[in-house]
Amino acid sequence: MRQRATVVIAVVVALVLGSYVLYTQRVVSSLRREAEREGRIYARVYRAISDTTNDPTPALFDILEHIRESGVPVVITDVRGRPTASVNTPYDAEPDDKRLIEFAARLDFENEPIILPGAGVLHFGFTPLVKELRVVPLLQAAFLALILLAAVYAFRTRAHADRERVWAGMARESAHQLGTPLSSLTGWIELLREQEVDEMTGRALDHMEGDLMRLERVAHRFERIGRPPKRETVDLAEIAERVSNYFRARVPSLAHSVVIDTRFEEGGAPMQGDAVLLEWALESLLKNAIDALAGRGGRVQVTVEKTPEAVRLAVADDGPGVPRELRRKVFDAGFSTKQHGWGLGLALTRRIVRESHNGSIVLLPTDRGATFQIIFPA
To answer: What backbone phi and psi angles, to 5 degrees, belong to 83?
Structure first.
């Protein structure tokens, strides 16, 4: 992100400097030609005035030609307001064309007309160079504003990246610190299994061992924060089955029971991805669906389908669903409809799907409940 911002700033700066250099060179060339034309006109007029034996008419025609070459739009109207002559107008028309009357009125907004005693009124506008001098500074100011915005964006992106590095370092350090107590708990569970225990204690040890394995996987996830995802062949159906079994053993089964169903195709759903991150994303979706059924019970359906083009994963629940006005916000970091929610689960899931696996995730429109669909490229 920071590299893209730096490239954008460099390109914009190069464009501004290049346009400024080219434009100044063009202005200098235009002014040089203007000075050359005026010098020639001055010489012709001076010669016509000095030499009374020659007709001064050619000098007057030279002045008219100079006006035409300079690009100054001119319309001359008589005392009744009818055009009698024009030059450098956008209309290739006769002097009595009505469009010249409207054009003369527009020229009066640029410059105050000049009254010619006994001849009429002279309406004139700006030269092309003057018009450019009025517009180009605005364009350069806009370019400079873009540079400023890009610099602010780059600064904020860098600050955000620095914060992410700090949080990633803290997460990896926390995962490292969890290693010692987790190893100790594993030893205690093995010691208890060597003793004679009743059936209930044995089941409890099985669940404790499952929770301990999950804690180890969670710790391993935090070690992966800030590092590039792995690209290896994984079976998404197998990951979905493992996560579903874990939650199935821990959801309410008596009052307000929650049922977790799975539907997978034969042969699994192999794909290229990071098993740790995919499991993390699926856990977030399942936990979100189970929370939606809290206090009322219901059913959660986990579906994995494999096609030649993609691998599809869907997590659907028959809970209250997501209000229409909130559907666009569900993936925003910090947004949560739960009173004590952090609003990070779905945002994290989208980041894993989109940025780490080039997939897509959407909240499908449904009449009841909520259905999240993920599509990974095959």
So the answer is: -65, 135
